[in-house]
Amino acid sequence: MAVAGFEIPALLPVKGCQLGATFADIKGVKPAKVVRDDVVVLRFAPGSSVAGVFTKNAFCAAPVTLCREYLGGAVEAFVINAGNANACTGDQGLSHAKQTCQAAADIAGVKPHQIMPFSTGVIGEPLPVSRLTTALPKAWETLSEDNWLRAARGIMTTDTRPKGVSKTLIIDGKTVTITGISKGAGMIKPNMATMLGYVVTDATIAQPLLQSILSRAADKSFNRITVDGDTSTNDSCMLVATGGSGCAEIASEDDANYPVIAQAITEVLMQLAHAIVADAEGATKFVAINVQQGETSKESLRVAYAVAHSPLVKTALFACDPNWGRIVAAIGYAGVQGLDASKVNVFLGDVQIVANGARAASYTEEAGQKVMDQDRITITIELARGSAEETVWTSDFSHEYVTINAEYRS
Amino acid sequence: MAVAGFEIPALLPVKGCQLGATFADIKGVKPAKVVRDDVVVLRFAPGSSVAGVFTKNAFCAAPVTLCREYLGGAVEAFVINAGNANACTGDQGLSHAKQTCQAAADIAGVKPHQIMPFSTGVIGEPLPVSRLTTALPKAWETLSEDNWLRAARGIMTTDTRPKGVSKTLIIDGKTVTITGISKGAGMIKPNMATMLGYVVTDATIAQPLLQSILSRAADKSFNRITVDGDTSTNDSCMLVATGGSGCAEIASEDDANYPVIAQAITEVLMQLAHAIVADAEGATKFVAINVQQGETSKESLRVAYAVAHSPLVKTALFACDPNWGRIVAAIGYAGVQGLDASKVNVFLGDVQIVANGARAASYTEEAGQKVMDQDRITITIELARGSAEETVWTSDFSHEYVTINAEYRS
């Protein structure tokens, strides 16, 4: 199940970025049920700038540890495997991640620290590193600029569909392309939880500026989506600028082209993030929770997350039940000090359901029902305390959510 | 569905407390599907001490507002209705709660502020107050000291079974009885979320001391259980001492009888709280999460709640899947500053699953599975930071949880 309208469009090649994929049976299904790519390689032109943001989970996975270490160096390739997270695997896990980098470096003719490893899948199982390294040459053979869709498919785990988006813009008379792919279908929440995102542009952007663009864009996109409130050990979102378009380097926020490229990259990240929510495990609804009139951004976010994480709100959304009492209860326990409940307004789409803390006189169950029956729903909350506004995106909890998460390992 | 082994035992009468119940069709089902008591009255001997703790939700319900106001006065009766929460009902809701008190006061021959009202059920619908007040005389006619089980049943909403416990002890050569009942089956969490608890003893205890006993006992029981992380607008837990046993008044912590009665009351509250978890919506597991070696109680609690609230852990529990990676991920994002993941240990029952942040060498899937197959599971987490220990109790997320919460209003 997944919310309609978020299907992957055609993905445009980006000059200076080749992609490859192969099947290595990382999950170790015997006999392998489905032969589906589970190893993906991204190869960048030498001199590409690479930026990254990573999980804040105290138990970060071995590959994340290496990526953090290698960030800022002359990275030329990403090796991504699905089926095993190589997380909570101790020293052995770190050794496995290093072996992966070494094997890829040998093929690419670069140093191991020029390869960044990424893993997604079950936590705590040893990575079958020899199956991975054995498969790497095959992945390398498939490298092509036209392989974005295959790569998008290869990084999937419980995702029901690949996720990606492309955008073009003109900078200095040259066409610049941005293409990104993402994966993640549950365990999604602020701080990049359980998702991988790879966005590549052929613009030329200096690394420090690229990192700043990514950090801000991630904060408005991947850090504002939540499915079940869990953050994973492996989340990573990478932004690469290959310079393949041949346009002049953008190195500072004072560059006239900075706002244009930053905005376009942010939009790509938002679309990738929304696609993750729309394909959340068992999702039937795509829900925006917009909190206005907070005293601070922090309290607006607190309220938005309290509503977004409430299993009672999420099951009501699944049931298409305009049970606004559950929304109001979640606002009430969000922990906003001194919140005056008698001033709070709540809207379901355009329909006001709560006026001054009680059911709006104009509200009818029919009007609420009409909004709830839609696939995309916006819940707007006015706190009457200030002007801070925040939006987070989430999905509902369905029977299928329980099924998927109860059966993921079997 | 409910975890076995928590069935209600025989409940002992408490001198000075009479209970009555009747059906008032508060929910307004037409035609009423099941004629089940939904109005309950507790009547106390004049001079009883009454203590209470209430929800911290900013949207507290009208009856909670009145209870807070009346606390400390000469309260002589409780009127409880199921089927409608009278929450987020604005001035009309407050007026309905006051009408309820007035009607009960007229019957009992006392003042309205000597009656405390309680409501549980759907939020935001007007309380059908005339059906309630019309039914009150009938409830009064049934008043009897032997009516505890009927009262326990009358306060149920989505509960699958009534909850109660009795305990006796000897004070000054006299037998003292403590009997309590509770309700709540979902939306349960710290700060008394969506539950009602009524504990009555025939000991004689001064009100300020009674309040202090209740606050501490609630903190170790009702404030340490969580099902879905939502706190309700109506949660209330009341403790009444009627003095009916004729034993000497206990008025200070220096009284030799204080620790004895305080301990017994705490045990009653813990049993009532655990019964709520074991009957949580769709629960198949009763899970204790014990966090040891925290630097502070606060951080131990944070970790315990992060694990207890993780939908991924909860669905794994339902699936009897020893997916310790999900437990570790939840510990990692609990927000403990400077947590050294490489020192953390985790046990499932007696089986060590994580040693120093990675899978324990001795761990086998079979051993983990054996623990997960049990109805009652303890997860022990050692943080290696200090000596603060906290335990919270929770349940799993099943298909039935989604079904119940998606269909509660229909």
UniProtKB/TrEMBL annotation, chains A, B:
<feature type="binding site">
    <location>
        <position position="410"/>
    </location>
    <ligand>
        <name>substrate</name>
    </ligand>
</feature>
<dbReference type="GO" id="GO:0005737">
    <property type="term" value="C:cytoplasm"/>
</dbReference>
<keyword id="KW-0055">Arginine biosynthesis</keyword>
<feature type="binding site">
    <location>
        <position position="405"/>
    </location>
    <ligand>
        <name>substrate</name>
    </ligand>
</feature>
<dbReference type="InterPro" id="IPR002813">
    <property type="entry name" value="Arg_biosynth_ArgJ"/>
</dbReference>
<feature type="binding site">
    <location>
        <position position="183"/>
    </location>
    <ligand>
        <name>substrate</name>
    </ligand>
</feature>
<feature type="active site" description="Nucleophile">
    <location>
        <position position="194"/>
    </location>
</feature>
<dbReference type="GO" id="GO:0004042">
    <property type="term" value="F:L-glutamate N-acetyltransferase activity"/>
</dbReference>
<feature type="binding site">
    <location>
        <position position="157"/>
    </location>
    <ligand>
        <name>substrate</name>
    </ligand>
</feature>
<dbReference type="GO" id="GO:0006592">
    <property type="term" value="P:ornithine biosynthetic process"/>
</dbReference>
<dbReference type="InterPro" id="IPR016117">
    <property type="entry name" value="ArgJ-like_dom_sf"/>
</dbReference>
<feature type="binding site">
    <location>
        <position position="281"/>
    </location>
    <ligand>
        <name>substrate</name>
    </ligand>
</feature>
<comment type="function">
    <text>Catalyzes two activities which are involved in the cyclic version of arginine biosynthesis: the synthesis of N-acetylglutamate from glutamate and acetyl-CoA as the acetyl donor, and of ornithine by transacetylation between N(2)-acetylornithine and glutamate.</text>
</comment>
<dbReference type="GO" id="GO:0006526">
    <property type="term" value="P:L-arginine biosynthetic process"/>
</dbReference>
<keyword id="KW-0808">Transferase</keyword>
<protein>
    <recommendedName>
        <fullName>Arginine biosynthesis bifunctional protein ArgJ</fullName>
        <ecNumber>2.3.1.35</ecNumber>
        <ecNumber>2.3.1.1</ecNumber>
    </recommendedName>
</protein>
<comment type="pathway">
    <text>Amino-acid biosynthesis; L-arginine biosynthesis; L-ornithine and N-acetyl-L-glutamate from L-glutamate and N(2)-acetyl-L-ornithine (cyclic): step 1/1.</text>
</comment>
<dbReference type="GO" id="GO:0004358">
    <property type="term" value="F:L-glutamate N-acetyltransferase activity, acting on acetyl-L-ornithine as donor"/>
</dbReference>
<feature type="site" description="Involved in the stabilization of negative charge on the oxyanion by the formation of the oxyanion hole">
    <location>
        <position position="120"/>
    </location>
</feature>
<comment type="similarity">
    <text>Belongs to the ArgJ family.</text>
</comment>
<keyword id="KW-0963">Cytoplasm</keyword>
<keyword id="KW-0511">Multifunctional enzyme</keyword>
<keyword id="KW-0012">Acyltransferase</keyword>
<comment type="pathway">
    <text>Amino-acid biosynthesis; L-arginine biosynthesis; N(2)-acetyl-L-ornithine from L-glutamate: step 1/4.</text>
</comment>
<comment type="subunit">
    <text>Heterotetramer of two alpha and two beta chains.</text>
</comment>
<feature type="site" description="Cleavage; by autolysis">
    <location>
        <begin position="193"/>
        <end position="194"/>
    </location>
</feature>
<feature type="site" description="Involved in the stabilization of negative charge on the oxyanion by the formation of the oxyanion hole">
    <location>
        <position position="121"/>
    </location>
</feature>
<feature type="binding site">
    <location>
        <position position="194"/>
    </location>
    <ligand>
        <name>substrate</name>
    </ligand>
</feature>
<dbReference type="InterPro" id="IPR042195">
    <property type="entry name" value="ArgJ_beta_C"/>
</dbReference>
<keyword id="KW-0028">Amino-acid biosynthesis</keyword>
<dbReference type="Pfam" id="PF01960">
    <property type="entry name" value="ArgJ"/>
</dbReference>
<keyword id="KW-0068">Autocatalytic cleavage</keyword>
